[in-house]
Specification:
This is Pyridoxamine 5'-phosphate oxidase. This protein is α+β, with helices and mostly antiparallel strands. Helix content is 22%, strand content 42%. The protein has a single domain, classed as Pnp Oxidase, Chain A (Roll), CATH 2.30.110. It has three helices and eight strands, in the order αβββαββαβββ.
Amino acid sequence: MQNTEIVRRQATERRRDTLERLVTERDVWVSTAHPDYGPHQVPLWFLWDGRAVWMCTSATSVTARNVRREPRVRLGLPDTFDVVLLQGEAECFPDQGVPNDAAEAFADKFGWDPRTEEGSFLYMRVVPKTVRAWRGTPELRGRVIMRDGTWLD
């Protein structure tokens, strides 16, 4: 029989697990908001560079339009049991103006380089200001593991 009891992790363990997931996972839910139409949420591929999340979308997408008006975003990894939520502000780069190292790392991870595609793309860089991580009810207390851009221990 499998043990389903949740063992409460300390902040340092949550940070370690969160950083591992940011490096290894592929998809993130991106939540933006339009001042008139409200929330918008889509999944995008992402790259973690050790400090920030990089994503890319069509320059004409709802997400791109929203972040240009309101750069505050919330990002969520797709596991509802092992929750990781990040909040920050999106810094936007047109596909031909993105830093080369970020674009190359993105292309290496996904085997796709938006800079070579027809149409315009927008890269978004989000440095987290707040990170929350928890597994089940026992970890709700202490779920904030980054505040004001500083990891908590």
